[in-house]
Amino acid sequence: MRLGRTGLRVSRLCLGTMTFGLQSDEPTAVAILDRATEAGITFIDTADVYPMGGRLETAGRTEEIVGRWLNKRRQDFVLATKGSHKIGPRPWQQGNSRRHLIDAVEGSLRRLQTDYIDLYQLHGPDLETPIDETLTALDDLVRAGKVRYVGCSNFAAYQVARAIGRSEARNLVSFVTVQPRYNLLFRQAERELLPLCREEGIGVLPYNPLAGGMLTGKHQAGEATDGTRFAVDAVRDIYRDRYWRGDVFETLAQLRSLAAEAGQSMATLALAWVLATPGVTAPIVGASNPTQLSDSLAALEFTLSDDLKQRLDDATHHYRLGDAPF
Question: Is 50 noted as a catalytic residue in this protein?
Answer without folding.
Answer: yes
